[in-house]
TrEMBL record:
Listed GO biological process terms: L-glutamate catabolic process
GO molecular function: glutamate dehydrogenase (NAD+) activity; L-aspartate:2-oxoglutarate aminotransferase activity
Protein name: Glutamate dehydrogenase (NAD)
Source organism, top-level taxon: Bacteria
Stretches assigned to the NAD-specific glutamate dehydrogenase C-terminal domain: 1234-1574
Location of the NAD-glutamate dehydrogenase catalytic domain: 705-1189
Length: 1578
């Protein structure tokens, strides 16, 4: 048999063994996936082991790491009982586990020396053939062996040795039992003890197949063994472990038969065997020894009727009889049933009295929810046996464990074993064996068999066990009942409560939990509870969440930010009767020392209320979770008060506070008293429920805060806390007490500490966890867009920068500048979140804004105001909110806000800017003006364009359709780059038009076949763009360049040598050379941005906002470029919106009065669209004209501009740095260089001039005077003027509209410095200037003249020169009216007095002029006619300055009438001009105009000279008239005057002759001339 693997492969023995293996275990080739050896491999290895076994020898082999299995054990031995059990016990003691056991009984033939000769696979082991051996082959697949293979091999061999001894000694043990029984048959018994005959019958019963003998040993009276023992008791160690040698014999009153359990488990089976001890007595009854048997009851013995078991039968009968029941009676049978189910151990050990008490005790609890316990001490004092009966439905693993814990604790046990019997009976029986140290433990007081000094009150133990087996449900229902709750509802909810929850939640806590669970409304709803904790936790916090579960990463930060340390967490999930899943998270919390001290004086209810409310607010998103949250516990604030402080901190960060949000929170936490005092101040200022003197309360709260802050150590803390104080004190209104889910603060920026300039007049800050926003207004009547900002850290800085531009832009409209912006905290939630945040922001603004009802201001409810009425709030669309106007109006409507859908212009009912193209059309007026100055007519001549934007955009798309002569050679947006090097204007126009009409088009939709050679469209994601020769020529790219990346191509487009750069997109693409890219505030375009000096276009049109920095514009302009500002170019949009708002205010009043329906109102609006556009574009034309003229003579006006800038700086707070205007040194440099301000600078000065003048006019009664109030209808379209004149007069903003109209008209007509110079020269007020402008322009009919001069056929340079000449007339005439007429100037009467005479005489001037003056006029008229003016217009322009004298002439005519010598006005006019020529007045006036302008004093000197000359001419003319009669020829009149003044005339002519020879008419000589002329007048 001993061969190699090849031999075994065909071995019939291997086949036989493998077949046996297969019968005892499945082949794992189709098994469960465990990595176990194949059966054939295992069989082959086992066969190798069994190859040689001498008779009686045991073969054991243990191998580790066999075929990937932890270990394998193989055994070959003679077949015997108990082998498997003994092997399993040995494996268990070695600390391993069996994964698979294969145990074939193998019939073999062996040679005499033990060699395996044959395996008889088909032989029956029960009837083996002759001369064969029946062997047990055991194969074990094991887990890893902690003690190693050698230890297990030793244990297995030892276990099989025990089996062999037991099997070998079984006959001797049964013989000894029979012998003892025989000896007892004739023995006499003792009173009260079990009769010897009964014991004998019991031993015989055991021998008769009811007991498996494992061992025997006899003992002498002193406890010493008197034989070597049999079976396992041969081993002294096992004999001592099974039962102590002393005890039974020593117990004098002990019964002669003791049946008990062994102290240690059997080595053959994993259970404690029985020990049967029989005392042997002599004839006198003295104990002479003990026979001790160890073994196990057989299966028949376990199920034998108790009435058939000797000893037990007697005790059972006596117990039933002792209870007073016949055995056959009902009660007797019940007792018999109870006793029959007792553990055999108890039947063998209990006395009759104990059996009786047990049975009757059990019967008393049947049908009751009670627990009974019966205890018995082991006679060897090793354990206490406890029988516990309890209702069957109360028996669970948890109740059994609870009872075991009680018994071990109360009985002083070391461990507890149990067996349970649960049948159809209403009672469950649990037999506990409480192991104790020998001699230790507590006796059972009611134990009649074994009393003792350390007795335990069985009744108390029974009560404790009863409490232990009460189910969690029992205790829960009892707790609910105690509170008067609905037990039926709780009972219905019990199926949804998992055991895991019951294991950790006491019923008392569960009552509160279930209340919370029942109160949840549905998925997503939450509940919270805070209560005192135990076991190291200050508090426990329970969070109830319906629906989907939460993660710890979501919950823990909220708890930690509230100032707690989370120690542990106990999760559970319950299901309500309606199927709603509810997750319960119970946390143990600990407070830090400072917080624990802070809450010490507060009640638990107060602490819990604040904490829970704060957590709920944070979880539901009503409040943020951050360092401020800890103020709830530390400072005793509620979560809304904390949110208020948090909002101020957020606002401080937007103001540029150097302290971080968390640092500010930490500071407040370190000074909780100050935090509380700040809240008290806030409450005193704004709580509408405050009673008593609010001012006194504020002063008291303010004083307390200041005192507390004064006591604070540390500069940072002091500054932070004073910052909070300053912001609260500067707050004018808040919606805090309206209890909104957001907070609004209206502040007075002048009072806010450390606010960056410029400071608006009003500011509203809106805060919520979802959105933050700010709205800045520079006046009560202000407007501007609301943008969705993408700059959460400094969005106010962005808005502040934009509002400056808005203020400039708004100079042309009624409201001053305003701007708002908001940031969305959770942009990942999509567009719906943006819309919701926008609604919140709008609501926040309206919450602190007064309404207007029946002409009266109505404050918002629950808002305490610390300012006056403030009803005007309008908004507009901006970046990110282009489609939100209807939403804003919807929100305003929900407030009943008086402006209706005028609140947000551009909604679905209003003027669609894109459809009107109004913004682009307004900017195009700038483009046209710039090109006219270059001699190009954009509407009839081709010109090249590069652009920023695409045709789907409003400004870019509309702009690129405003001329059919556009040659768009390149453009880009955020998606594509478009290049068409040599486009056909007509074809490309049509394609652009197609794209514009195509919804959501992009450059990618452009028909490539229409693009000229070398061009194309490329996505900005492309790696490279090929550069064609045509592209290089068109864009001015170097010849060596073959390809560019999209950013490089965009950079080239910006720097292309085109005619026009049209900005209709988003982004800042041009800066100044000395500016860092950060100044542009547009990091995305840092890589493509150009410097102003790098632009090669001639004109920039700014349809979009912020395309260039202001410094970039100035640099471009200094390098010869034509540019205004975005505020000038795209002001038509805001102008149109303002018209819409003011028209809607008027029409809504008519709707409210019932004079119009809503549909009729909407129809009127639509009907006026074109006229509104014309009104708006007229402003763009006017502003471009005034800027064009200002550019034309900017160097000459530099000193005036310098003084104007300084004046605005001093009076209006203009900040030169912010507005990018030169400082004094900068003006000096420009003067030295002979330069003036650029167009962008002039645009800024223009806007601030208008804003200043408008404010001044509004502060006067000028808008209410009839002469100007009558101008109001001019603002509105014709339809309204004709149909609703009364409504116009009642417009709520009539004063603002009139003021804006008058100022725009004056500044655009008279120039930027007109009013300022009148103020300098005459100390005239702005209202004086308005009056003078109105009179002068009306008297000389200048607006009509200007309109004629704007004709496209007239070159810009010519028209500008003519208009400048008219302004000289305007200046002089205005001064004349302000000097020579009563003040304030009566506009109506002055116009009535002078307009007609001036109009009649104006046409006579060319014929009445004489000498050089006439020649000068004719020469000028001829020149103008040649420049494109018609003869009449040219003549009028040429005689403009001479018409100034008509004012004096009109008065001379009146003086003649007063002298009672009326003269024909024509005669007076002829004399006046003749005298001027005669005296050389015109030469002197011309010389005065040529004087150096210099500073203010130079200007005043020139003015004085000019006035003296005109005054002298007037006086001399009057003198001449008085020297001659009316009708005297002019020359005769002059001659008469000369004769009358001969002596003075001689002296004057001599002086004038000397001056004439000098050839120099400077200030000194002109002063002499003026004096000489004055001397000629009487």
């Amino acid at each position: 048999m001993a061969g190699g693997k090849a031999e075994l492969a065909n071995d019939p023995e291997l086949e036989a063994v493998t077949a046996l293996y297969a019968r005892h275990a499945p082949d794992l080739r189709g098994g469960s996936g465990e990595r176990l050896p194949r059966l054939d491999t295992a069989a082959e290895e086992h066969l190798r082991l069994a190859a040689e076994r001498p008779p009686g020898e045991v073969l054991v082999r243990v191998r580790s790491e066999s075929a990937g299995v932890g270990a394998t054990a193989e055994i070959v031995t003679d077949d015997m009982p108990f082998l498997v059990g003994a092997v399993l016990v040995a494996v268990s003691k070695a600390g391993s586990e069996v994964r698979r056991l294969i145990h074939p009984i193998v019939v073999v033939r062996r040679t005499p020396d033990g060699k395996l000769a044959e395996v008889l696979g088909d032989a029956d082991p029960a009837t083996p053939p002759p001369e064969t051996v029946v062997e047990s082959w055991i194969h074990l697949d094991l887990d890893q062996l902690p003690t190693g293979p050698d230890d297990l091999q030793r244990r297995l061999a030892e276990a099989i040795g025990h089996v062999r001894r037991v099997v070998g000694d079984t006959p001797a043990m049964t013989d000894r039992a029979r012998a003892v029984a025989d000896e007892l048959t004739s023995a006499s018994g003792r009173p009260g003890a079990t009769a010897p005959g009964e014991i004998a019958r019991f031993l015989q019963w055991l021998v008769d197949g009811h007991f498996t003998f494992l061992g025997h040993r006899g003992y002498t009276p002193d406890g010493a063994p008197h034989d070597a023992g049999l079976g396992v008791l041969r081993d002294d160690r096992l004999a001592a472990a099974f039962a102590p040698r002393e005890g039974l014999i020593a117990g004098g009153d002990q019964d002669d038969l003791v049946v008990t359990r062994a102290s240690a488990p059997s080595p053959l089976r994993a259970q404690h065997p029985y020990v049967v001890a029989v005392l042997v007595r002599d004839a006198q009854g003295a104990v002479v020894g003990e026979e001790r048997f160890a073994g196990l009851l057989t299966v028949p013995a376990l199920y034998e009727s108790v009435l058939d078991i000797p000893v037990v039968e007697h005790r059972v009968r006596e117990a039933i009889r002792g209870a007073g029941f016949p055995l056959d009676s009902y009660s007797g049978q019940q007792m018999l049933d109870v006793l029959s189910e007792l553990p055999r151990e108890e039947l063998f050990s209990a006395s009759e009295e104990r059996l009786r008490d047990t049975a009757t005790g059990v019967l008393t609890v049947i049908g009751r929810s009670a627990v009974r316990v019966f205890g018995r001490r082991d006679p060897f004092r090793r354990f206490i046996s406890c029988l516990v009966y309890l209702p069957r439905d109360r028996y669970t693993t948890s109740s059994r464990l609870a009872m075991a814990e009680v018994l071990q604790r109360r009985l002083g046990g070391t461990s507890v074993d149990h067996t349970a019997r649960v049948s159809e009976s209403r009672l469950a029986q649990v037999h506990f064996t409480v192991h104790t140290d020998t001699g230790a433990g507590t006796a059972i007081a009611a134990d009649t068999d074994t009393g003792g000094p350390d007795e335990l009150d069985l009744s108390a133990l029974q009560d404790e066990l009863g409490e232990a087996v009460r189910t969690w449900e029992d205790r829960l229902l009892a707790a609910v009942a105690d509170e008067g709750g609905d037990t039926a509802a709780i009972t219905a909810a019990l199926p949804g409560i998992p055991d895991s929850y019951k294991a950790v939640a006491p019923p008392e806590r569960a009552v509160e939990d279930l209340k919370q669970v029942a109160g949840l409304s549905g998925p997503g709803d939450i509940g919270v509870r805070l209560y005192r904790g135990t076991a190291g936790a200050d508090w426990r916090f329970t969070f109830y969440l319906a629906g989907e579960p939460a993660t710890l990463t979501a919950v823990l930060p909220v708890l930690q930010q509230l100032g707690t340390e989370v120690l542990d967490e106990r999760p559970a999930e319950l299901t309500r009767t309606d199927g709603l899943r509810v997750h319960i998270y119970d946390f143990g919390l600990r407070l830090d020392d400072a917080t624990r001290e802070a809450v010490a004086d507060r009640s638990d209810a107060e602490i819990a209320s604040g904490f829970c409310a704060s957590f709920r607010a944070a979880w539901t998103g009503e409040a943020e979770s951050d360092g401020f949250s800890a103020l709830v516990l530390r400072a005793g604030l509620d979560w809304r008060e904390v949110s208020m402080l948090r909002a101020y901190a957020r606002y401080a960060r937007q103001l540029g506070s150097p302290y971080g949000h968390q640092y500010m929170a930490t500071t407040l936490l370190a000074h909780p008293t100050v935090a509380r005092s700040l809240v008290e101040l806030f409450r005193a200022r704004f709580d509408p429920g405050l009673t008593g003197d609010r001012d006194a309360a504020i002063e008291q709260a303010l004083a307390r805060v200041r005192d507390l802050i004064d006591a604070v150590h540390g500069l940072d803390a002091d500054r932070i806390l004073r910052g909070f104080l300053g912001m609260i004190a500067a707050t004018l209104r808040t919606n805090y007490y309206r209890r909104r889910p957001f907070l609004s603060f209206k502040l007075d920026p002048a009072q806010v500490p450390d606010m960056p300039a410029p400071r608006p007049k009003y500011e509203i800050f809106v805060y919520s966890p979802r959105v933050e926003g700010v709205h800045l207004r520079f006046g009560k009547v202000a407007r501007g867009g609301l943008r969705w900002s993408d700059r959460p850290q400094d969005f106010r800085t962005e808005i502040l920068g934009l509002v400056k531009a808005q203020a400039v832009k708004n100079a042309v409209i009624v409201p001053v500048g305003a701007k708002g912006g908001f940031v969305v905290r959770h942009t990942e939630r999509g567009r719906a979140e943006v819309e919701a945040c926008y609604r919140t922001f709008i609501s926040g603004l309206l919450d602190v804004t007064d309404n207007l009802v029946d002409g009266e201001a109505v404050p918002p409810p629950d808002v305490v105001r610390h300012d006056g009425d403030d009803t005007y709030l309008v908004v507009a669309a901006d970046k990110g909110t282009a489609t939100f106007s209807d939403i804003a109006n919807e929100v305003a409507a929900s407030y009943g806000f008086w402006l209706g859908d005028a609140f947000a212009s551009g909604g679905s009912v209003g003027y669609d800017h894109k459809a009107m193209g109004i913004t682009a059309r307004g900017a195009w007026e700038s483009v046209k003006r710039h090109f006219r100055e270059l001699g190009v007519d954009t509407q009839s001549q081709d010109f090249t364009v590069v652009g920023i934007g695409d045709m789907s955009g409003d400004v870019f798309g509309n702009g690129m359709l405003l001329s059919r002569h556009i040659k768009l050679i390149a453009a880009f947006d955020h998606r594509h780059v478009f290049v068409d090097p040599d486009p056909d204007p007509a074809t490309s126009y049509e394609e652009r038009e197609r794209l514009f009409e195509l919804p959501h088009s992009s450059w990618d939709d452009y028909d490539r076949s229409l693009i000229s050679p070398g061009g194309g469209v490329w996505p900005r994601t492309a790696k490279a763009v090929p550069v064609s020769p045509q592209m290089r020529r068109a864009l001015g790219i170097a010849d060596r360049v073959e390809q560019l990346s999209p950013p490089e191509l965009i950079a080239a487009i910006l720097r292309a040598p085109a005619d026009l750069l049209w900005n209709g997109g988003i982004g800042t693409y041009v800066k100044a050379t000395d500016e860092p890219h950060e100044a542009a505030g547009d990091k995305a375009n840092d890589g493509v941005r150009a410097n102003g000096s790098e632009l090669r276009v001639k004109v920039v049109g700014e349809g979009g906002n912020l395309g260039l920095t202001q410094r970039g514009r100035i640099e471009f302009a200094r390098n010869g470029g034509k540019i205004n500002t975005d505020a000038i170019d795209n002001s038509a949009g805001v102008d149109c919106s303002d018209h819409e708002v003011n028209i809607k205010i008027l029409l809504d009043g008519l709707v409210a009065a019932g004079r119009l329906t809503r549909d009729e109102r909407n129809a009127v609006l639509a009907e006026m669209t074109d006229e509104v556009a014309q009104l708006v574009l007229a402003d763009n034309v006017s502003q471009n004209d005034v800027l064009g003229i200002a550019r034309a003579h900017a160097p000459a006006m530099l000193n005036v501009h310098r003084r104007l800038t300084a004046d605005l700086e001093a009076r209006r707070g203009l900040v030169r740095e912010l507005e990018v205007l030169p400082d004094e040194a900068g003006f000096a440099e420009l003067e030295a260089a002979g330069q003036g301000l650029t167009s962008p600078e002039l645009a800024t000065l223009l806007a601030h001039t208008k804003l200043d003048l408008t404010a001044a006019v509004l502060d006067s009664d000028l808008p209410d005077t009839p002469a100007f109030a009558a101008r109001l209808p001019e603002y509105f379209p014709r339809l309204i003027r004709e149909r609703f004149p009364d409504a116009i007069a009642a417009h709520p903003l009539r004063r603002e509209i009139i003021a804006t109209l008058l100022v725009n008209e004056m500044v655009d007509g008279a120039g930027i410095t007109y009013a300022f110079r009148l103020g300098e020269e005459l100390a005239a007020s702005p209202t004086d200037a308005v009056r003078a402008y109105a009179v002068t322009t009306a008297v000389f009919e200048l607006p009509q003249l200007w309109e004629q001069l704007r004709a496209p056929r007239i070159p810009t340079a010519v028209s500008d020169r003519a208009i400048l000449e008219s302004r000289r007339l305007l200046d002089r005439a205005s001064r004349w009216f302000l000097t020579n007429r009563p003040q304030p100037l009566a506009v109506g009467s002055a116009i009535a007095r002078f307009r007609e005479p001036v109009r009649e005489l104006r046409g006579l001037i060319p014929d009445l002029l004489r000498g050089k003056e006439r020649e000068s006029v004719e020469e000028s008229a001829t020149e103008l006619t040649g420049a494109g003016l018609d003869a009449e217009l040219a003549t009028r322009c040429a005689t403009l300055m001479h018409s100034y004298g008509l004012l004096d002439i009109v008065e001379l005519v009146e003086l003649a009438e007063q002298d009672r010598e009326p003269r024909d006005p024509e005669e007076v006019t002829a004399l006046y001009y003749a005298m001027s020529n005669h005296l050389g007045i015109d030469l002197a006036l011309t010389s005065v105009s040529a004087l150096e302008r210099g500073d203010r004093w130079h200007a005043l000197a020139r003015l004085a000279l000019r006035d003296d000359l005109y005054g002298s001419l007037r006086s001399i003319t009057l003198d001449a008239m008085r020297e001659s009669a009316p009708g005297t020829p002019i020359d005769d009149t002059i001659a008469a005057w000369e004769r009358a003044n001969a002596s003075r005339l001689v002296r004057a002519r001599a002086a004038l002759h000397e001056i004439g020879k000098a050839g120099q008419l400077d200030l000194a000589t002109l002063s002499v001339v003026s004096r000489q002329l004055r001397g000629l007048a009487r």
